[in-house]
Protein: Bacterio-opsin activator HTH domain-containing protein
Amino acid sequence: MSTDITDSEDATDTGSVSKDGVAGADTEAAPGPGSEGEQPGIRSQAEGGIVAQLRLDHAALFLRPTLRDAPAVTVEPAYWTTIEPGRTVVFVTVYGRDFDPFETALTADPTVTDPVLVDRYSDSRVYRVTLTDRAVTVTAETAALGGRLLDLSSSRDGWLVQLRFPDRERLVAFNDYCREHEISVTVDHLRVSDDESEGVVALTDKQQALLTVAHEEGYFDVPRGISQDELAERLDVSKSAVSQRLRRAIGELCAAALP
Structure:
């Protein structure tokens, strides 16, 4: 669903986008003295808030040129850090079968420089890249608005990002910032962050979506009603991403359910 955030009624806060990272951490908060388990002097944003799953696109978004030229892989940034003034390094995990198109596109991508293959596995690879000053990112502004990154991965039309903001106003500010900087924003869904009825707490939205489709289509039946290839096609991700996401989701459920 493509929705303007300002028209949504089930949000609670706002956020914003910027040009030097990929998401953020909580900042300004209301004081919460007397809340159970909280120390005096520690401000709290733990109550309420809004979780937004968004699709972001812009020609100069971090790694966007590479994603456009190598749509068969799924990219998940692992972490990033500024190791010296003006130099931000990002580690990304790439899932797929054929990495040649990705590596070819990566070497020509104007949003990054100095790409390095850091590790190699049977169905994924880890790369380190350095951001250039041409890269458009969302980290700093998201953090400035009190937002927090929950999940981030590539999609065929840009980046699929899940963000939590303390209230609706800051989410709207994030949308306004994107509009001002010509970053396309498509809303997949919004939910109140403490509404546990919307999903299993231990799972990300992508993990829950995968498990829901897998269960409904008989992936766990004997014999199976759907293959991983078919799941990947239904969810528009690579088979490797489906395999990794299934293992992580099942691991999270076991960790939450078992003593």
About this structure: The helical segments are 64-69, 100-108, 139-144, 168-180, 205-216, 228-235, 239-257. The beta strands are 30-31, 43-44, 50-57, 74-84, 87-95, 112-120, 124-131, 148-155, 158-165, 184-192. Residues 5-27+48-60+136-198 form one domain. The CA atoms of residues 131 and 228 lie 34 Å apart.
